[in-house]
Amino acid sequence: MTHQSPLARRHLRRNWFAFFGDYVFFGLGLTFASMTTTLPAFAATLTDNKVLIGAVSAVWTGGWLLPQVLAANYLSNKERKYPLMLKGMAIGRPIFPLFVVWLLLGGAQFPALTLILFLGMLGYFAATDAFVALTWFDLLGKTMSAQTRGKMIGIGQAVTGLTAIGAGAWIQWVLSPQGPGYPLNYIYILGLASLSFGLSALANVFIVEPPEAVSETRPTLRDYLPQLVQLWQGDGAFRRVTITRLLAGLGGLATTFYVVYATDSLHLPQSAIGWFATAATLGGASAGLLLGGAADRWGSHRVIQITCWVEFAIPIFALLCASGIFGASLPLVYPALYFLLGVFESSIMLGFLNFVLEIAPPSQRPTYMGLTNTLAGVMVLIPLVGGFILERTSYPVLFVLAAIGTLAGATLALTLPNPRPTAETTPLPDSHLAAPQAD
Q1: Residue 422: which residues within 8 A CB-CB, separation 6 or more?
Q2: Hey, what's the torsion of the CAs at 240, 355, 134, 234, to 10 degrees?
Q3: Cβ atoms of residues 81 and 135 within 8 Å
Q4: Please, where are the H alpha helices in 209-299?
Q5: Is the overall model pTM greater than 0.90, yes or no?
Q6: Which of 155-169, 177-191, 393-407 has the lowest mean pLDDT?
Q7: CB within 8 A of 43, min separation 6: which ones?
Q8: Which is the most buried residue in 62, 115, 231, 284, by most CB within 10 A?
């Protein structure tokens, strides 16, 4: 550990709590506005078309991932990322409460228009937050070592899970027959999501950005694109972790439809969605407690390996549910699927994104993060493909295809190198793995 001045230590503590507060409140917001439970369930109240329901995940994923590589180029010569992050939040976060106002004004009486506005809202929120995320990751990389990041993310996941237990129980009540009824139930849910995202933005106000040298000029698009190709070809660790993430993402063929399958085919009540949300957040909390320590001790590559096999287990579990093996106990067992889903989805940052932060040279962090996320934007098509498959086949066929894709990702994950080279660990010949910064 390197010597730090008292001021530097105070800034480190302040940044730790600021990032922690953002992580917890944003995670709580995603419990209320969940891409796997409440959001597709709300879309299903507006349409029964499976492709349009799958568009919820597609719009969210595409809006968040696809713009990042261009945003990374814009940020490449910006010495100060903090003001840009706050501007991005100020522009993007208000769209959620505006949609809640639309519902309060009776928008649900016009389901087709509301669905269009809903998808547009999600796309706008995700696209603006994609820019925010790039600045956030760069600040996280500046201010914390790999070990400190792992601890913060792990504890953040655990606390988010504990707070979200109550949120999930409340969602279960608000969607039950004893709740306020439609559309007020979803107005409450999306309203609390808006509040949580606002508190998340407030926590970021307290971040202190340390100085760091950057390039004085930003490359033109003509120069920038060949640099991306060179990065892809020259860094084997980056290439392998991105392909692994894409293969694991094939689980998204079915992810959006697990909640629709539960309510439409297994005839579980709408109120069960609250238990699904609780189970998912408990999965995230468990992952934080266990995998945060694993990332700190053994490296982010171990987190990726563990969670990719968890992702493979999800469609296998769904197939077991479809087989009828659980009988009358199915309502008690099905939330376990969401527990596993929570473990995987809450660990993407702790595993995949933390891995990329570790291997990226400091001056190229936005480029590395932008490229890996934009390439992962291919996953925007996966929920739409899943809906197309489901319209023409059946849920078991969809689950089998998801299992095949995730098995390939889990297998490739076993070949990932340790991003923290030691005397016993040699990095791939064509990768430039950066050692973590000292606390």
Answers
A1: none
A2: -40
A3: yes
A4: 221-234, 236-248, 252-255, 258-260, 272-298
A5: no
A6: 155-169
A7: 52, 53, 55, 56, 115, 118
A8: 284
Tell which residue, 369, 84, 76, has the closest CA to residue 215: 76
Q: 257-272 burial, b for 16+ CB within 10 Å, e for fewer?
A: bbbbbbbeebebebbb
Tens-digit pLDDT profile for residues 112-134: 999 999 999 999 999 898 888 88
- Determine how many CB atoms are found less than 10 A away from the CB of residue 90: 12
pLDDT higher than 60, residue 431:
no
Residue range 162-178: mean pLDDT, rounded: 85
Is the Cβ–Cβ distance between 370 and 69 less than 8 Å?
A: yes
Phi/psi of residue 416, nearest 5 degrees: -65, 140
Amino acid at 172: Q
Q: 326 near 333, Cβ under 8 Å?
A: yes
Distances (CA, A) of 273 to 15, 55, 135, 263, 277: 35, 19, 33, 9, 6
Rounded CA gap, 82 and 143, in Å? 12
Domains for the chain: give ranges and CATH numbers.
Answer: 6-413 (1.20.1250.20)
Closest by alpha carbon to 52, among 99, 122, 130, 129?
Answer: 122
Is 383 within 8 Å of 225 (Cβ atoms)? no
User: What span, in angstroms and rounded, lies between the C-alpha atoms of 420 and 357?
Assistant: 11
Length of the chain: 439
